[in-house]
Amino acid sequence: MAAARRAWNNAGGYPSHLLLPVTALSVLLCFCTCPDDKTAMRLADTLVGERLAACVNIVPGLRSVYRWQGAVECDNEVLLLIKTTRARLPALSARVVELHPHELPEVVAVEVAGGLSAYLDWVAEQASDSPIREIPADSDT
To answer: In angstroms, rounded to a whole number, what is the distance separating the alpha carbons of residues 69 and 40?
Structure first.
């Protein structure tokens, strides 16, 4: 089974440091737009604080053009880039809907196709509802 995973992971000829460990195959990057900095910061703090996301990047200066209720709208927004896992996506989405001021907030998730495996493992660990307890190096347990 491990050989099959290795073969599948390296099917694209990626360098070995970019190969995805099995635990990282569930990492997602979610996009969410917010109407202002205050909303973006509140969502980012909540999602990371509640371990629904490992990290949220706040990207200001976004201009969105979209159709809403029959009219074309154009708004300045703030983009959230949310790193999470497939397992946490339902709870993350529900929390965004609960906290977001828009009637229909944007939550779009895409699978991460590659990346530094140690970083992807970190995302999976930090966005876990039951994190692995780290034992201090000087501990006897």
So the answer is: 24
For the chain, domain boundaries: 29-112
Q: What pLDDT, on the 0 to 100 scale, is given for residue 16?
A: 60
Q: List all residues 6 or more positions away from 120 whose beta carbon is below 8 Å from its beta carbon.
A: 20, 21, 23, 24, 27, 112
What is the band of 22 on the pLDDT scale with cuts at 50, 70, 90? Answer: very low
Tokens of 111: 């699978």
C-alpha to C-alpha distance for 25 and 9, rounded to whole angstroms? 10
Class of domain 29-112 (CATH, top level): alpha beta
Across the beta sheet with 108-111, what order do the strands follow?
A: 55-68, 71-85, 27-34, 108-111
Residue in this structure with the two tokens 């604080």, named with its chain if needed: 49
Q: What is the structure's pLDDT at 129?
A: 81
Rounded distance between C-alpha atoms, residue 89 and residue 52, angstroms? 8
